[in-house]
Amino acid sequence: MKQSIQRIGVLTTGGDASGMNPAIRAVVRTALGMGIETMGIRRGNRGLYEGDAFKMNARTVGGIINFGGTILKTKRFPEFREKQVRQQAYKNVKRDQLDGLVIIGGDGSARGAYEIHSEFGVPVVLIPASIDNDVYGTDFTLGFDTAVNNAVDAVDKIRDTAHSHNRTFIVEVMGKEKGNLALEVAIACGAEIVLVPEIEADWNKVFTSLEDQKKRGKVSSLIILAEGAGKAQNVAKLLEEKFPEREIRFSVLGHIQRGGNPSAFSRSLATKFGVEAVKMLRNGFYSHLVGYKDGQINCIPLQEVISNQKTLPMKDVEILDRMAT
Ligand code: F6P
């Protein structure tokens, strides 16, 4: 049932993603334009649980469109899986007279968002934000494009060394459970091999592929490894044992991938998501995700988001193989 929305809360949850700030800005300014007040909730679900909210206005979100991270701060808060923790969060929602929540976060945040609506009836819209691009129902999450660009920038530099020294390089990128980031980076960098958590590594295939590349005259090879598919150090050791004549090196990119100014795409998408999220709350689309599918902003129920897993685009794996000739 459509409820009257006069005041909403906005929070950022899970790992920070570049694009969260422009999304917060869009939420606050869209709400203002509709006569809706916005409270910012600090440190994600932890802040919701502790009731750490403050009033926002057009100025509190001024000059942040190009900032990475999140001005609202965020925190990993696995305790939110417990019902009594969510109950306390709900009490704070009531105390602060919040008629709805815009939650900006990733796959892990979708379930919490779904539950706080289904258990307590709080109107919720989720804006997908994660460098892993792992949220079902949207082609892109905020932060993914920026993280890909950050990683590509770093790998391009590593490639100069790999090529100059005729080396085989393993570059470990983020992605504990999903290989979307690794795959996109691999394609954009022209890597020869990608190793992702979704596909069990076939080491014989990797060895043969590296041998074939050498036969075809390649002097250096680049392997992009998602952190969830193994440790770069271990892969380097394995390759050193197999190819003692080769110079093998590895590099772990780590958190350098996550921050930095959001790319133009991340900012624009964040702004569109933020505007749509507030409209959705006003129009009674509760417990929904605002996403981007086939070039359009879309809206799907959170129930569908949490009951499905985003799959790795296998056609992109084929593209990578095709290019590595
Ligand atoms: O969820 C995004 C992500 O960057 C993952 O790719 C990575 O495994 C994880 O966060 C790292 O989290 P933290 O910064 O909490 O160590």
Overview of the molecule:
This protein is of the alpha/beta class. 42% of the residues lie in helices and 18% in strands. It folds into 2 domains: 7-143 and 262-306, Rossmann fold (3-Layer(aba) Sandwich), CATH 3.40.50; 146-257, Phosphofructokinase domain (Rossmann fold, 3-Layer(aba) Sandwich). It has helices spanning 20-33, 44-50, 83-95, 107-120, 144-164, 180-189, 203-215, 232-242, 264-282, 302-306, 314-323; strands spanning 7-12, 37-41, 53-56, 100-105, 124-128, 168-173, 193-195, 221-226, 248-252, 288-293, 296-301. Strand 1 (7-12), helix 1 (20-33) and strand 2 (37-41) form a beta-alpha-beta unit. The model has no long low-confidence stretch (mean pLDDT 97). 6-O-phosphono-beta-D-fructofuranose binds at residues 15, 76, 106, 130-132, 174-176, 227, 258.
Topology of this protein?
Blueprint: E1 7-12, H1 20-33, E2 37-41, H2 44-50, E3 53-56, H3 83-95, E4 100-105, H4 107-120, E5 124-128, H5 144-164, E6 168-173, H6 180-189, E7 193-195, H7 203-215, E8 221-226, H8 232-242, E9 248-252, H9 264-282, E10 288-293, E11 296-301, H10 302-306, H11 314-323
Parallel strand pairs: 1-2, 1-4, 4-5, 5-10, 6-8, 6-9, 7-8
Antiparallel strand pairs: 2-3, 10-11
Helix pairs in contact: 1-9, 2-3, 5-6, 6-11
The structure holds 6-O-phosphono-beta-D-fructofuranose.
